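example protein:
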Amino acid sequence: MEIKAIIEKWKPGVKAFFSTFPWKNSLFFLFFLLLAFIFWLMLFFQKENVEGTYRIPLKYTNISEDVVFDQALPEFIEISIADNGAEIFRLDITKKDSLEINVTEMTEGGNTILQGDQYRQLIRSQLSPSTNIRGYYPMNISLATSRLQQKELKVVFDGEITTNRANLVADSAVFIPETVTAYGSRQSLDQLDKAYTEYTLFKNLKATSQLPVTINPVEGVKFVPDHVDIYIPIEEYTERTFEVPITVVRMPKDLDVKFFPSRANVSFSVTLEEYKKIAQEDFEIELDYRKFHANEDGRVDLELTKTPASINNIRLSPSSVEFLFENRTAE
């Protein structure tokens, strides 16, 4: 209510202000201001020797994979130029294209320093013919390189792969390509036997996927390529359970053994394709008398001695059972 009262109080004053505001004079003022700006722009375009300073990004191409530059390469070149106003205005409002330096071409004949006329002509290729170059920095760029040793390394995944509840990773992940080439000093390469990826998490995968991963950088070593793809086969799985009897081998002829319980449930995950191919006979729980007969607590841990290769996530319940020896009666 207070806000409404304030609005009602000020409403007549605001209305009176806008009704008496000199809109016509203001529009004339804005028109002449715009006209003055246009005249100034025209004069600026016709003006000669307008100066400007710009930063142009550098792009290095055609670099041999087995070399490293002896000095760090600059990422930008700063140039000071003079030209007519129209050209300076164009440079001010347009995005600067990268200045490409073809390393192999520039170093032909053993020349390893980009400087002088060669450097100046390269800069001029980015400018208008009317532009006067007043100066630039750096004055030269060293393209000297040293040849590196190389070593093929197998890619190894560092990270975690998880799927949703209805799917599982069907087989080992595969890298494309499976190996990368490491370039570096002999001492650096001797310390490497594998190329590990950066620690990566792939969560809740629902289908077979091919995803990019980055090779974990190593100081003083260059990997080619430094990115690979990881192929992760994912299949839809279902759960199944069998009741499997517990058996014993190497029992003395005069003894018998009873287990409590005498069977264990084997639960596992299996693809829909393999589901009907799995039978109870594909599983065995076979204990060795010599390994458990002296157990003082009268319990023995269960272990599957036969399982199909196509199943995953196997669980035994119970994981251990009690046992009791009995003498066999003479027949």
Observations:
- The chain is about 20% helix and 45% strand.
